[in-house]
Amino acid sequence: MARRPEFYFDEKTGYYRKRVKLQSGAYKDVRAKSKEELRAKLYDLETAQRMGVILDDKTTVAQLLAQWYVNRKDGLSYSRRRDYVNAINNHICPIIGGYRLKSVKPEDCQRVMAALAGKSNSLQTKVLGVMNMGFDCAVENGLIFRSPCAKIKAGGVPTEEKVPLTPEQCAALEDATKGTRAYLFVLIGLYTGLRREEICGLRWSDLDLNAAAPHLTVNNAVRFDGGKGIFPSPLKTKAAHRTIPLPSKLADALRAAKSKSNSVFVVPAKNGSNASLQTVRNLMAIIGRRTVKASAATSEKEAKKRGPQIQQTLDFKVTPHLLRHTYITRLCQSGMDIKKIQYLAGHSDIKVTLGIYSHVVGNTPGELIGAVENAFSGQTSGQTEKCQQEKVLSING
After folding, report:
1. Taking the mean position of all CA atoms in its chain, how far away is CA 198?
2. For 66-97, what is each residue's pLDDT tens digit?
3. How far is CA 268 from CA 167, 200, 262, 263, in A?
4. Are 188 and 250 within 8 A, CB to CB?
5. Where is the Tyr recombinase domain (predicted)?
6. Cβ(350)–Cβ(341) below 8 Å
7. Which of 318, 319, 288 lies closest to 305, judged by CA?
8. Is 163 helix (H, G, I), strand (E, B) or coil?
9. Are 343 and 350 in contact (CB under 8 A)?
């Protein structure tokens, strides 16, 4: 009796086929162009059944991501929700949104990333992160047994290294904003390194200006939700809860501002309530009107809006995060212990602090030679030879 072939070959279609019985009792035809491909598909099918994957599920990528987002959006910051929606609506779903989850292959996920070629590494990382979380959710719920994007890496254009403000630029910024609503925001950013959400959530009760060492404690933050600023909101991490000493210049400015303030917030909105994202934008606009634009000439409309009394004395762009980055950089340049810098910056992971520190400290031969000489200054050639002998003895002994 002739042995039954491993697979049936359909000459009309050119495909190999194998009919298998599912756990439900139904039969399913599995097809592939080659025997190797068909064996791989059968192995995946067997594994999926063993892991309890719902084989007849017809959920698409778009349906999964929509439900995944709805289940997790509460509690996310406005910026994080915006990142997720952007990744899903503008980058993932236009390419694979209509695919059934079970039909998505690694190459399909790679096409999503290929469409982001030339974009920043930051954007690619965010999009890949959403895909990973979405497909991991599908695995956990028995819709697929393996994520198709598990081995994909983000590429893209590296984020430009942030250049902190120089002491001269800091002085120019303080002079340009003095007497405006942006002045206190700038000082707090430069001299405490608070995040913008932390500055907006800072209350006078969080400050102790009469202590021997004036300081503030970061207790709350404002969460930006569209045009609203929600207070109180949790801090970014546990490490964000910290007490920061205030340099005398900032302490004096805060005392003066407190004597005139009618709000419980240090940097409030115009109506005295907690600041919102629009409040921050308005404060940055004050700085922007004092900054020389990159264009050849400022339009007549812009000049009229700025007014003749406002002088454009700044030739650099300022963001809230740049103020924070400048503060951390100054701490690194001072030679302060790295763990203290991590605490003052509110970094939960010291790798973030070290990433800034490594770009700040001098690493040229001329800057390092003194430390290297000191490291070996007490070691003579005789001592070196003795150490080598001891090592040889310990190895051979």
Report:
1. 17
2. 999 999 988 787 788 999 999 999 999 999 99
3. 27, 7, 10, 7
4. yes
5. 160-373
6. no
7. 288
8. coil
9. no
